[in-house]
Design a protein that fits this description.
The complex is a heterodimer of chains A (720) and B (224). Chain A has 720 residues and is an alpha+beta fold. Helix content of chain A is 55%, strand content 12%. The relative contact order of chain A is 0.12. In chain B, 34% of the residues lie in helices and 29% in strands. In chain B, helix 3 packs parallel to helix 5. The chains are: A alpha+beta (720), B alpha/beta (224). The interface between A and B is medium-sized, with 32 and 35 residues.
């Protein structure tokens, strides 16, 4: 131990390497901990919102809850209209008490809005006195807009429940696509982390190999040499690991500021479990030490000798094929095991591909080197070719992070456009300002209490030619004020956006009654919508009991009219194009933000890994570069050689990584729950972006190596 | 005098090449034995097999009558810091350690207390004319000085046999002469045998005995 510290004391670059190793390990631990907290954070959100849903099999109770989603200023408002026949209703943590009739509980963010916005635009939607605020334990995120409004018994139609406690869904409520994305994200971001940490652990590999050989000559046993490598690496790894684990707590505030699902997070959501943090920190240190020890296994296990060239062996191809086999097995497992194990199977499959690429990389690098050597056009190709051909593993190390970043980018850009296609936006059936309320019992009451001009309609089915079409029964002139593209003609008629064949029949879904329309009823075509419109004179009986109302609004009076409707229709959901689009925009924003964060992290990790490896290769070859400078080799030529050493392997592997990313992206889409038919990959020119970004990241690494090269002089002292 | 080191029928192959082809050799206590021969004749392989750095493919090496052929890698390492001392052409010093720390390595690796190991190392550095340079690192020493640090490292644990592989090849003749003088003198002080591989006949003439090596065989033995 003391000997190792004596070595470090005399080794400035060893100390630099240890410091870089510490920083890389801290960053890696921090990132891994953050990624590991994501599923838990999602679950924590849903656990806090568990009171909003009835427990499966609850079987009714004294509480009636009508859940609706409202919207204000582009933000979603979750509203719970509650009645109770019992005074003693258990409530979840964060809910002060069950609001009595005429009482309202608001989340702090909503209460703040209500205080600062004119009441007719928002506050009057929640009739009654605000008697308290919901606490954090009852909210998904700090700035969530939630209201619980108390009503007299019978005033609200909704779900009968025993209490307002609920229970988290087993296995996490937020499963499916998000879990899959999280799993894949873990794999594609953890691997560059590992590459960076391992690169840091082997930063001055050649120099350490020389030292080990000298120690072995002096009589160090393999065990002593191994301990010396382990202690030397642990000097950087242990503080780095501990630092990373400690930084996870303050860093949770940064992670909590990233919007997701319409809001930010509570920092506690991203604070890792101390045991998990400890295990990750310990594993990171073990990985760093293990990478360093494995990197010197030849010096440790064989008789002392000068360090030999490390060539890529055919064994790597076997490992690569095995890793690719993991991907194949994962594809089969996804089908065989079903959705329960889908996340694990897909994550393992992606991991298999990444590992296969990492194993193949040095083989490709060595091949590139041999091809370059064959050209032998001058000193540059000789220098570059020799390095790539004789040290393919070390040469590839600078490209490993880049490769994973390109793979991640290609995968994301293949999958995300298709996922975006699945995001639901308003289909344009209704006019932009139209606000609709379905399931309305008494339209006349709405008209009176809301004091606005409403368009009454009845939602029915129109059957023709053996097919059913969704339709509304309503006065054409009125419906045209809220329905897109509808142009009315004189006289009662049926308006359809597509041809209707044969006899027409109107079916009321509430009581399953039907009305056969007269054969001479005119069917007029109109464009711009998917809804059939039936004039009341054509089907008088459904028209007599409207169940839907619509209001035409303008941007100026939209909030006011929505407030009037919400007050008049407690427990009834109001929909409009803005609200629907806001849900789609939130989801789309989440996906894009997650992809962007993932790509930025992958690129940063790739650049850091490439820089560390390129600088390490210069540090390790100080003597070689010094000898070349001493023999008259221009530094410019060495710099060009260094750039070529980094860029040539990158050029070879990025295309392969891009292809693999596209292939896995296609596979991922087919495995993603809820994308049975629509999840087809969309070809996009943006697929070239990861390749370009990969080269940019490699350039950063090459520039870092070039900067280190500037400090080498012909004596070799500086370099050494 | 009975030999401290005995080689019987040593064979070492590198693929199809037989670097050692049935070598028999005795090294007596306190003796300086020079092994000369052209490049590629197997001199360095002989030295590495004799010192246990490389395992033999045939035959055996006996140290004071005990075979070292069956020793494991760890036991051979222990041998290098107890019974043997090694000096190579390149010195193979640890660049990050000072001269005295380098010289003290066999003792430090053997568990001697730090202060005691450095004290002994300083004594040997003094014997080899390096007093005052103990705190310098290898890159601040001349080639001859670095080689003498390597000799100190080979002697510090008072081994029975010192193996030196072309220790003067990278030095000018004057410095080479000084280094060999220091090596032989220090070995005599430690009562250690020296097996000196060289292609320099001037260096070989400093030995008690010279064996000529060619194509993996001893072709002549001359007592000087």
């Amino acid at each position: 131990m003391r000997l190792t510290f004596a070595v470090l004391r005399g080794d400035r670059r060893g100390r630099v390497a240890a410091a870089l190793g510490a920083v890389a390990t801290a960053g890696g631990v921090l990132l891994v901990l953050w990624l590991l907290t994501v599923p838990g954070a999602l679950d924590a959100r849903e656990s806090r919102a568990a009171w909003r849903s009835a427990v499966r099999g609850e079987g009714g109770g004294p509480v009636t809850v009508a859940t609706t989603r409202d919207e204000f200023g582009g933000r979603s408002v979750e509203r719970f209209d509650v009645t109770s026949s019992s005074e003693d209703v258990p409530v979840a943590a964060g809910i002060p008490r069950r609001p009595r009739p005429g009482e309202v509980l608001l989340s702090p963010a909503l209460a703040d809005l209500v205080r600062n916005v004119p009441a007719e635009r928002l506050g009057r939607r929640f009739p009654g006195e605000v008697v308290g605020e919901l606490g954090g334990p009852a909210l998904r995120f700090p700035d969530e807009l939630v209201a619980i409004v108390g009503h007299p018994v019978g005033a609200v139609q909704g779900t009968a429940r025993r209490d307002l406690v609920g229970a988290p869904a087993p296995g996490g409520v937020d499963g499916g696509t998000r879990s899959l994305l999280t799993g894949v994200g873990l794999v594609v971001l953890v691997v560059p982390c590992l590459v960076l940490v391992a690169s840091a652990g082997r930063l001055t590999e050649a120099r350490r190999a020389r030292r080990l050989a000298a120690l072995r000559v002096a009589g160090a046993t393999p065990g002593q040499a191994l301990r010396s490598v382990a202690v030397e690496t642990a000097v950087g790894a242990l503080p780095g690991s501990v630092l990373g684990a400690l930084l996870a707590v303050p860093a949770s505030r940064v992670a909590a500021a990233v919007p997701w699902g319409g809001g930010t997070w509570f920092p506690a959501d991203f604070v890792p479990d101390p045991v998990v943090a400890g295990v990750v920190a310990a594993l990171a240190a073990v990985l760093l030490v293990g990478a360093a020890v494995l990197g010197h296994r030849r010096e440790l296990s064989r008789p002392p000798a000068p360090p030999a060239d490390r060539r890529a062996t055919a064994r790597r191809l076997v490992f690569a094929l095995a890793a690719a086999g993991v991907f194949g097995a994962a594809v089969v497992a996804t089908d065989v095991l079903g959705p329960r194990y889908q996340v694990v199977a897909v994550s393992a499959g992606v991991g298999g591909v990444v590992l296969a690429l990492v194993f193949v990389g040095p083989l490709v690098t060595g091949l590139v080197g041999r091809v370059v050597l064959r050209t032998r056009r001058g000193p540059l190709t000789l220098l570059v070719g020799r390095r790539l051909a004789t040290r393919p593993v070390a040469s590839f190390r600078a490209s490993a992070g880049v490769l994973v970043a390109v793979f991640t980018g290609a995968l994301a850009l293949t999958a995300v456009p298709a996922l975006e296609e699945q995001v639901r936006f308003d289909d344009g059936t209704w006019r932009p300002g139209a606000v609709l309320a379905h399931g309305v019992e008494r339209v006349d009451v709405v008209r009176e209490s809301a004091g606005v001009a409403v368009v009454p309609m009845t939602t029915v089915l129109v059957r023709s030619g053996g097919r059913s079409h969704t339709a509304v029964v309503g006065r054409c002139a009125e419906v045209a004020t809220v329905l897109s593209g509808l142009v009315c003609a004189s006289g009662p008629a049926v308006y359809a956006p597509y041809p209707l064949d044969g006899a027409l029949q109107v079916a009321d879904r509430r009581d399953r009654s039907t009305v056969d329309l007269a054969p001479d009823v005119p069917v007029r075509a109109y464009g711009g919508s998917s809804l059939v419109v039936v004039d009341p004179e054509v089907a008088p009986s459904p028209a007599a009991r409207p169940d839907t109302v619509a209001v035409a609004t303008t941007p100026e009076n939209r909030d006011v009219l929505r407030t009037s409707l919400a007050r008049a229709l407690p427990g009834v959901a109001l929909t409009d194009r803005g609200a629907t689009d806001s849900i789609g925009s939130t989801l789309l924003g989440d996906v894009r933000r997650a992809v962007l964060i993932g790509l930025v992290i992958a690129a940063l990790l790739g650049a850091a890994g490439a820089s560390v490896s390129a600088v390490g290769s210069v540090l390790d070859r100080g003597r070689t570069f010094a000898a070349l400078v001493a023999t008259g080799t221009p530094t410019r030529l060495l710099r060009r050689a260094l750039w070529a050493e980094v860029l040539l392997p990158v050029g070879a592997v990025t295309l392969a990584a891009c292809g693999a990313g596209v292939a896995v992206g296609v596979g991922l889409l087919s495995a993603t729950p809820g994308l049975p038919a629509g999840g087809h990959p969309l070809p996009t020119p943006w697929l070239a972006a990861p390749v370009v970004a990969g080269f940019a990241v490699a350039l950063v690494g090459a520039a870092a190596g070039g900067s280190a090269l500037r400090r080498v002089d012909s004596t070799g002292h500086h370099g050494e | 005098m009975s030999p401290i080191l005995t080689a019987r029928g040593l064979v070492k192959r590198y693929g199809e090449v037989r670097a050692l082809d049935g070598v028999d050799l005795d090294v007596r206590r306190g003796e300086v034995l020079a092994v000369i021969g052209p490049s590629g004749s197997g001199k360095s392989s002989l030295l590495r097999v004799l010192s246990g750095v490389l395992p033999a493919d045939g035959g055996e090496v006996l140290l004071a009558g005990r075979s070292i052929g069956r020793l494991g890698e760890a036991e051979r390492s222990v041998l290098r810091r107890t019974e043997f001392g090694l000096v190579f052409q390149s010195g193979m010093l640890v660049a990050e350690l000072t001269a005295e720390e380098n010289a003290a390595l066999p003792l430090l690796l053997g568990g001697t207390r730090w202060g005691e190991a450095l004290r002994v190392a300083r004594e040997w550095l003094g014997v080899l004319g390096l007093a005052g340079l103990e705190a310098r690192r290898p890159d601040a020493l001349s080639g001859g000085q670095a080689q003498r640090v390597a000799i100190a490292r080979a002697l510090v644990h008072r081994p029975g046999v010192i193996f030196a592989d072309e220790p003067t090849a990278a030095l000018d003749s004057r410095t080479g002469h000084d280094v060999v003088t220091a090596l032989v003198g220090a070995a005599r002080a430690a009562d250690a045998a020296v097996v000196l591989v060289t292609h320099d006949h001037a260096v070989a003439r400093r030995a008690h005995r010279v064996v000529e090596f060619r194509d993996g065989r001893v072709v002549a033995g001359v007592r000087v």
